[in-house]
Amino acid sequence: MPALAEYIPWEHRRLKALRVRDVMTWSVVTTDPDASLVQAGWMMFQRRIGSLPVVENARLVGILTEHDVLGVLGKGDGIDPDAFTW
Asked: Strands, E, within 1-86: which ranges?
């Protein structure tokens, strides 16, 4: 962390004291495994988020990322790219 500390105007002690809970997003947007890729992609686009936790029965089962969505569109895989023309 010393390399990072020189670029951040905080004391090294304060950086060491920070925890994930201090900087994380608490109001998490999620989707379920049966949501369509279009629905999930649209939600990510509207909310300007790069990843979407996938939850089933109140349990995290995966994470959908913008990389995942774009990867499927790039391959084709039977997905109609025009469905993503919002």
From this structure: 51-56, 59-65
Measured CA distances, 41 to 14, 29, 51, 56 (Å): 37, 12, 10, 18
Instruction: Show contacts of 58-61: CB within 8 Å, 24+ apart.
Output: 61/33
Query: Three-state SS for 6?
Result: coil
Range of 21-25, 51-55, 77-81 with top mean pLDDT: 51-55
pTM: 0.65
pLDDT in tens, 2-23: 566 566 665 666 777 888 898 8
Domains and CATH numbers, the chain: 24-84 (3.10.580.10)
Q: Does the pLDDT at position 29 exceed 90?
A: yes
